[in-house]
Amino acid sequence: YGKEGATEYPDWLASIDLSDGGLYYYNAQYNVTNNNADSFIVEVIDAKTGNVVSSDSYSSGTLNAGEWIVKLMTYKGTEMCATTYSVKVEPAELAWSLSEFIGKEGFVKYTRNTAYVTYQNGPNLYLKDSSGAMLVYSYNLPTFQSGDMLDSFIGTYKDYNGTHEIIPVESTFSSFGNWGAQEPEVITLEQVTAENQNKYVDILKFIGT
Hints:
about 0% helix; elongated; five-stranded mixed beta sheet; mainly beta
């Protein structure tokens, strides 16, 4: 060890919680753990230009949109060991409500405004927050329960024949707790309109003479 490209590393090697070849959205936050080394330096290099954009010994940092090479150099006595990580961060626009996805291009990150699951059926996941209801569509969705609360996920907007949809990055869902199973909203046949699309509803039937 002590040289770049080493296959065996010393137990004092500092570690960083980034995935080599990892794909992130909006930003990538990292933390360095010092395993009894004397010191370490984190060097961030623009992968396209080769320019060093930062070099410091902070134990945490943030990578914004771009393609980066992160080089972690750990020092112990007269020895140095380096590890490198190739990271790509896709740009994403922040959305504080489900309705803010509508019409957006590119990746959007839903954050802070709690959405909850009203209903899930196969690839169809119906969400609701204070701004309204939205369909999240994917065949690789995690399994949720009615009432599960979501505080963050990444997705792109799609207009499917006039229906609003979010196509998610399935690995980005962050959930916490459950508000309890949700009951459908009762509406009349006349209320089956575009304004009520994607809502979890029970249509009131009227039989008369």
